[in-house]
Write a structure and sequence with these properties.
Blueprint (H helix, E strand, L loop, with lengths): L9 H21 L5 H8 L3 H7 L3 H25 L3 H18 L1 H7 L4 H23 L9 H17 L1 H15 L3
Helix pairs in contact: 1-2, 1-4, 2-3, 4-5, 4-6, 4-7, 5-7, 5-8, 5-9, 8-9
Length: about 180
């Protein structure tokens, strides 16, 4: 019989959240090579606390990615529920490209991530499809474009962001204009 996981105590949940936030900031500014001791220091906890929640550094990286992806997914759903679902796709894509520009280390780590991130990635793809359908139904996005096309464009924009940061915002708008219905 599988053992049920107990919910975290309030203080343990706060510590976990502080570790995730400190790790996100550290990874975003300095890359994935930041030592666990430094992340613990920034979070105001001991290294043992970090290891209790994340037995290996890879577990911490994966948890940070999954947490960030969940925030992005939640933001996308909020856009869908807003007054202008036809514009939600374009707002979401801009935000995703901007996020990737400030979190390049995490974007690179996505390729080597484990199951927790893979599940979030599936939710992300589902959301992207919902955003596209809403925009197409509203007449703001081209009908001849599929979710895989939009995902490929997004990946291309993210890559362009690291290639030419100065032109990234302008070229993102050029791509989004190409997605708009005539």
């Amino acid at each position: 019989m599988a053992q049920l996981e107990r919910p975290l105590r309030a203080d343990a949940a706060r510590n976990r959240a502080r570790v995730l936030e400190a790790a996100l900031e550290a990874f975003a500014t300095e890359g994935l090579s930041v030592p666990i001791d430094e992340i613990a220091r920034r979070a105001g906890v001991g290294a043992g606390t970090v290891y209790r929640h994340f037995p290996a550094k890879e577990d911490l990286v994966e948890a940070v990615i999954a947490d960030q992806m969940q925030r992005i997914i939640d933001g996308g759903h909020a856009l869908l529920e807003a007054d202008k679902p036809g514009e939600a796709l374009f707002t979401f894509l801009r935000a995703a490209v901007e996020w990737s520009a400030t979190n390049r280390g995490l974007v690179d780590a996505l390729a080597d991530s484990g199951n927790e991130v893979k599940e979030a990635e599936e939710q992300f793809k589902d959301l992207l499809g919902e955003l596209l359908r809403a925009a197409q139904d509203a007449g703001t996005a081209r009908k001849d474009v599929g979710m895989a096309d939009v995902k490929a464009l997004m990946v291309g924009l993210q890559a362009m962001q690291s290639y030419n940061d100065d032109a990234a915002e302008r070229l993102t708008e050029v791509v989004l204009d190409g997605l708009r219905a005539g």
